[in-house]
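User: Hello! I'm new to structural biology and keep hearing that structure can be predicted from sequence alone. Could you demonstrate with Efflux RND transporter periplasmic adaptor subunit? Please show me the input and the output so I can see what each looks like.

Assistant: Of course. The first part below is the input, the amino acid sequence of Efflux RND transporter periplasmic adaptor subunit. The second part is the output, the predicted structure written as tokens.
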Amino acid sequence: MKALLPIAVLLGAVGAAWAMIELRPGMLPQADKSTRPMVEIVRVKPQTVRLNVMSQGVVTPREEIDLIAEVSGKIVELHPALVSGGYFEAGDLLVMIDPRDYDFAIVAAQANIAEAKRVLINEKALAEQAQSEWLALGQGEASDLALRKPQLAEAEAKLSAAEADLAKAKLNRSRCELRAPFSGRVLSKQAGRGQYLSAGSAVARIYANDVAEIRLPIGIDQLAFLDLPRNNRSKHRWPNVTLRAEVGGRLQHWQGRIVRSEAALDGSSGQLFLVAQVDRPEWEGPGRAPLLSGLFVQAEIEGVTREKVFTLPPAALNSLQQVKVVNGERRLEFRKIEVLRHETDRVIVRAGLHAGESVVISEMPMPVAGMQVVITNTQAVENP
């Protein structure tokens, strides 16, 4: 027995040393496979992605004006389309004001011109006679008054004034006809047949339906993802935009473009408004509903592209901007990453990952660095 004692002591020392090596700080024991956490992963690969920017706004006409009477008088004629929702074409006679008083004014102005011409002819004859008589006297240089130059100038001025009165009378007569300055629709009507209008009275509110506009608020942090010209006069191409809204229980979409930015940031929100336009908004075709004024729409603006980035589902990222990477030994590593942008259904990673690495995308109750895991989706494809 005494001979075996040294051997037993030696074996015990060897066992203790092995245990100390295997269980030294920072090392975890090899867990039984049945007790290892099960995880789902995605193998990341660098991609080129387009970073579109989302916004929303209300559809408005590009032009919306009040149809204003420039002269006073009674309405004697209204276009049949001058009702709320009515359509009209550019140049259509929408409102006719009683023109008789203005026709009389034209006749009176023409008579005044005739009288002014008669006076001018008479003054020219008298001026020529005065000059001839002065020359016959041979008394040197004649004064303007002797040659009737002031009287002649007055007659010429009166003729010019009479002609101006005629032009004004004709202008007022033309203003009896309120014609559509563009093709469009009637938003509302404020006057009817037989009503007397004063100059400056609104007859109707109309808008052009050739182009619709939508003001889209953009946060300052999102401007980095848009390729915008430096000013509205630049020939640089503005981005396209897709508008979406539910109409009649169906999701509709319309294509448009950004055409300009507003001059300053909004004082209350600190956002910049971009203006989108859609041509022929009320055109209705197969699968396309009209884009009506007043409709609230969601907008997706074409953004810039970024190369060599990675995309992950939001669940892969913790509150410390870290992801869990499974290494070749099936152990967890916590990796700090640099996020380019958070989106609703994905996180775009700028730095911190390498092609082919496995990132955990499933929930783990108590993850610990270095712990072994079991990958349940061993045939995991690379992230799309």
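User: So the tokens describe the shape?

Assistant: Right, they're a compact way of writing down the 3D structure. Reading them back into a model, for example: The first strand starts at residue 38 and ends at 39.
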